[in-house]
Amino acid sequence: MVSDAVIGIIVQMGMVVLLCMGFTFTHMIEGFPNFAHIGFTLIGTTITFTMTKLMGINPYLSWPVSMILCGLLGVALYIVIVKPIKRRRDGNITVTLAFYALSIIMETVVGVYSYWIVTSRHETTRGFMLKQFDFTFMGLPGVAIMTPLASVCLVVILYVFLSRSKHGLAIRAVSEHEDLGAVFGINTGRIHMASWFIGGALAGWAGSIIPLGTSM
């Protein structure tokens, strides 16, 4: 029987893999640290909590929902915040500070929503876990199986995508030299939005995994 400590380590390893890959995508393209990256994780956790605890939906069905919604949020933030600031050529320091402030805002919004759940639905939002909604296979909880499997599959898929596909090569080209990539006909705007979608989706996915293996 695998101990809870080992399961927790497995879940945290998968979460770190997803977070690092998502963070790297935006940093590789934009050139600044996205301090709001962990905010996407909080939103992913909130989505999973809402769908599982309040709506009675299987937690694994919340994974694609978290990925899509957090990915779209990433695209929206690029369009609304990053693109206008870069168009004015204010520099990466301005964008970095903007996303640091945004991280505080996102945490506050999640906190307000959590407080609403406590007062209106009388559900615990601190230190909660969703282990009781997980499945077991051969004595192992599902999250201890799904997390490493999903992480390995994702690494392979991203490797093939970035090294073999046309869009993946375009992302690498833009990360190396955006102006030169534009000269060769690459739609750099779409590349930026793709990187923000991928980064947000991976962070949201990590957030959905966390409550299945450890307390929040």
Task: Explain what you see.
- The chain is an all-alpha fold and 216 residues long.
- The longest helix has 30 residues, at 92-121.
- The chain has a two-stranded antiparallel ribbon with strand order 1-2.
- 77% of the residues lie in helices and 2% in strands.
- The mean pLDDT is 85.
- Strand 1 and strand 2 form a beta hairpin.
Topology:
Blueprint: H1 4-30, H2 37-54, H3 62-87, H4 92-121, E1 136-137, E2 140-141, H5 142-164, H6 166-176, H7 178-183, H8 188-213
Antiparallel strand pairs: 1-2
Helix pairs in contact: 1-5, 1-8, 2-3, 2-4, 2-8, 3-4, 3-8, 5-6, 6-8
How would you describe this structure in keywords?
216 residues, mainly alpha, two-stranded antiparallel sheet, 8 helices, globular
What's a concise summary of this model?
A two-stranded antiparallel ribbon has the order 1-2.
Largest sheet geometry: 2 strands, antiparallel
The overall strand count is 2
Physical arrangement of strands within the biggest beta sheet: 1-2
Helix content: over 70%
Listing every helix as H and every strand as E from the N terminus to the C terminus, the arrangement reads HHHHEEHHHH
